[in-house]
C-alpha cells in the first residue's frame, strides 16, 4: 500500500499504544471467555448451561470465542488459500471488481472508519445474491434497490468457495442467535424472524505490513452495526477489544481452533443495553501481513430495531427510539466508503 499518507494517521488519543493492557499485565487477554459448543451436536441436549455462559460474556465483554463450532476445517483452509490468492493479484486485476457508491460489494482499498482511512484492503460479498436495500437514506423515500455481488474471474473457484463458506457460517450464526434468545429467557426462535430476507455479508480483510504501525490502524475503533459478527482470523493477531468496565484496550490472542464472536448494535438495542456491543480495533505491524474473515449477520432491510417488549418494563424503560435497519445500513455503508464531513450514524443517535 506504499507510504503512510496523512489520511491514515490516527489522532494521538486513538493511536495503537494508548490505554492498552499488555498480556503480561495483571489483566490477562484470556478473560474473553471461550465457550465449547460441542454439546449442540445432540439436538436434545439442554442448551441452558451454554446460554448462561453466553449471557455472562455478552454482559461483561460483548465478545467471546467458540470452539467445536462445526465449521469444517477443510473449508476454512480452502477459503484462506483462496482469499490469499485473490489479494496476491495485481492492483489492476483486483480493481476490476472495485466497489463504488452505487455497488457496495466487491474490492476496496480506501475503507474509512470514523473518517480515518484504514490500513487494509477488503473484498465484500452478500450472503444472498441479490440483496434488497433502501435506495437512499432519506426516511420518507420508500424506493428499494437490488444489490448484487461482483465476482472476479480469478481465482477460478473463488465464487464457489465464498458461497460455500458463507452458507456454513450462516448456520452457526443462527445457532448463536437461538442461544442468545434462550439466554434472555425468550423462546429460541424469538429473533429468527428478523433475518428472513437478511442483508448479511462476508468480508475478506488483508492487512499488509505497515511502515508506521504506531500511527495507523488496520481498522479504527468502532462497534459493529448488526446483530452478530463471526470472525475467523489467522495466527498473526492484531484484534483489540475495549473492556466494558473501564474502556481499556486489550489484545485477543489468536486460537487456531476458535472463532471469535461479538455482539453488534442490534443485540444491544434489542436487549435494552443488557448485552454490550464492544468497541474494537485492529493494530498492524511492520513485518507481517494479516488476514481475517468477518461474517456480519444483519437483519432484513424492513426490520425496525427497538428494545424487545418482553425486556422492558416500568423499572426498565426503553433506552432507544426505534430506527429502521435498512436506512441505518445504507447510511453506515456509505460512510465506510469515503471520508465524510460529519460523524457516521451510531446507535447513540437513537438514545431515548
From TrEMBL:
The UniProt keywords, alphabetically, are: Iron, Metal-binding, Oxidoreductase
Note the Pfam families from the entry.
Answer: 2OG-FeII_Oxy, DIOX_N
Domain (Fe2OG dioxygenase) spans 198-299
Q: Which gene encodes it?
A: LOC104765765
- The keyword Transmembrane helix belongs to this UniProt entry's keyword annotation: no
> Looking at the record's lineage, which domain of life comes first?
Eukaryota
Which protein family is named in the record? Belongs to the iron/ascorbate-dependent oxidoreductase family.
Annotated InterPro entries? DIOX_N (IPR026992), IPNS-like_FE2OG_OXY (IPR044861), IPNS-like_sf (IPR027443), Oxoglu/Fe-dep_dioxygenase_dom (IPR005123)
Name it. Answer: Protein DMR6-LIKE OXYGENASE 1-like
Amino acid at each position: 500500500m506504499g507510504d503512510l499518507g496523512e489520511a491514515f494517521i490516527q489522532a494521538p488519543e486513538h493511536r495503537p499504544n494508548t490505554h492498552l493492557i499488555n498480556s503480561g499485565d495483571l489483566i490477562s487477554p484470556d478473560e474473553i471467555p471461550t465457550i465449547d459448543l460441542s454439546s449442540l451436536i445432540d439436538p436434545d441436549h439442554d442448551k441452558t448451561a451454554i446460554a448462561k455462559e453466553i449471557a455472562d460474556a455478552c454482559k461483561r465483554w460483548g465478545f467471546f470465542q467458540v470452539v467445536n463450532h462445526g465449521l469444517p476445517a477443510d473449508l476454512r483452509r480452502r477459503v484462506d488459500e483462496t482469499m490469499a490468492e485473490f489479494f496476491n493479484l495485481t492492483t489492476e486485476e483486483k480493481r476490476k471488481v472495485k466497489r463504488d457508491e452505487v455497488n457496495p460489494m466487491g474490492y476496496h482499498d480506501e475503507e474509512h472508519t470514523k473518517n480515518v482511512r484504514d490500513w487494509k484492503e477488503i473484498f465484500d460479498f452478500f450472503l444472498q445474491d441479490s440483496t434488497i436495500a433502501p435506495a437512499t437514506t432519506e426516511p420518507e423515500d420508500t424506493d428499494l434497490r437490488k444489490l448484487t455481488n461482483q465476482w472476479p474471474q480469478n481465482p477460478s473457484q473463488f465464487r464457489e468457495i465464498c458461497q460455500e463458506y458463507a452458507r456454513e457460517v450462516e448456520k452457526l450464526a443462527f445457532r448463536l442467535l437461538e442461544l442468545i434468545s434462550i439466554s434472555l429467557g425468550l423462546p429460541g426462535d424469538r429473533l429468527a424472524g428478523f433475518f428472513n430476507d437478511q442483508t448479511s455479508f462476508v468480508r475478506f480483510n488483508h492487512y499488509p505490513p505497515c511502515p508506521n504501525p504506531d500511527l495507523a490502524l488496520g481498522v479504527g475503533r468502532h462497534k459493529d452495526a448488526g446483530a452478530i459478527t463471526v470472525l475467523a482470523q489467522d495466527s498473526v493477531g492484531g484484534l483489540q477489544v475495549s473492556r466494558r468496565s473501564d474502556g481499556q484496550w486489550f489484545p485477543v490472542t489468536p486460537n487456531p481452533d476458535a472463532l471469535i464472536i461479538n455482539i453488534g448494535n442490534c443485540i444491544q438495542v434489542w436487549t435494552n443495553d443488557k448485552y454490550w456491543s464492544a468497541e474494537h480495533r485492529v493494530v498492524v505491524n511492520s513485518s507481517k501481513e494479516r488476514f481475517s474473515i468477518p461474517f456480519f449477520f444483519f437483519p432484513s432491510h424492513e426490520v425496525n430495531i427497538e428494545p424487545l417488549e418482553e425486556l422492558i418494563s416500568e423499572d426498565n424503560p426503553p433506552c432507544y427510539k426505534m430506527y429502521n435497519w435498512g436506512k441505518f445500513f445504507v447510511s453506515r455503508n456509505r460512510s465506510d466508503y469515503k471520508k465524510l464531513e460529519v460523524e457516521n450514524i451510531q446507535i447513540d443517535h437513537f438514545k431515548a
